[in-house]
Amino acid sequence: MGIIASTSRKTENSETSGCSSWESVEPEYLAFMEKGGCIEPLVEYVDCKGEAQKKNEDVFPKCKEAKDRLDKCMVAHRDYHQPILEIMEPAVELVVNKIEALFPLVDTVSTESADQPEEGDGPLHVFMNGGACTESCMALEDCLVEVMETNEDICNCTKAFTMLMKCMDAHSDYYQPILDAVYDGEDHYRTLLISALRGDCKRI
Questions:
Q1: Cα separation of 62 and 54, whole Å?
Q2: Residue that wins the pLDDT comparison between 68 and 13
Q3: Where do the record's region annotations for Disordered lie (predicted)?
Q4: DSSP bridge pairs for 19
Q5: Taking the CA of residue 8 as centre, how many other CA atoms within 13 Å lie in the half-sphere pointing to its CB?
Q6: Is residue 1 part of a domain?
Q7: Which of helix, strand or coil describes residue 107?
Q8: For residue 157, how many other CB atoms are within 10 A of its CB?
Q9: Which residues lie closer than 8 Å to 116 by C-beta, 6 or more apart?
Q10: Helix (H, G, I), strand (E, B) or coil at 19
């Protein structure tokens, strides 16, 4: 099983932006992690996820302790793992930019009308709650608000995010624009990861 979970997007070409496929670079990733001292918690977490998926169990509660150990190990050796830690930010930024382009904020001052959504309900919020995943979307929103207010780890919202993704996958006919943005971010992350490990792939 691959270390980085694959998305549900099906592509004919296994190459990522001209770089080698993830499968071909996985041994290098494992070697990198082993040198950094975090190979044991990594393998533990991957094995836990694999077992949970085989048994159709919820990965988050089952593997939370294993994931916490992996995160703590990487933070404890941040200087070594920085090359792969820092690439998450541009991947997330890509997703955010794509979603913002799809659902630009409306100037409610100049476009007030009876048809405008309630205050605070931007186009993205309206779209997300207009499909079948309203409950999952609200659960994620509530979780994000809570972690920001309590200054907790945003990873505490992994379960809520996973549930929302599963719901959107099940209703992809409606949520495909959002899914495409997320998948593009994951593809970008893989490209940057391969580049960080090999240094022979041009970054996007």
A1: 13
A2: 68
A3: 1-20
A4: 16
A5: 12
A6: no
A7: coil
A8: 21
A9: 106, 108
A10: strand
What the block records as the tokens of 80 is 């070594």
Structure tokens given for 49:
């996820």
Given the structure tokens 């950094």, which residue do they identify?
A: 36
CA distance 150 to 43: 31
Residue 105 lies in a domain: no
Both structure tokens of 99 = 């979603």
The 10s digit of each residue's pLDDT in 127-144 is 999 999 999 999 999 998
Count how many Cα atoms sit within 13 Å of the Cα of residue 40 in the half-sphere of its side chain: 4
- Asked if residue 129 is part of any domain, the answer here is no
Beta carbons within 8 Å of 170's beta carbon, 6+ residues apart: 132
**How does pLDDT run across 95-113, given as a tens digit for each residue?**
999 999 999 876 544 444 4
DSSP 105-174: PP-TTTS--TTSPPTT--HHHHHHTTSTTHHHHHHHHHHHHHHHHHT--GGGGHHHHHHHHHHHHHTHHH
- In a domain, residue 32? The reply is yes
Structure tokens at 74: 């990487």
CA distances to 4, 12, 85, 170 from 59, rounded to whole Å, are 14, 28, 22, 18
Q: Which domain holds residue 70?
A: 21-85
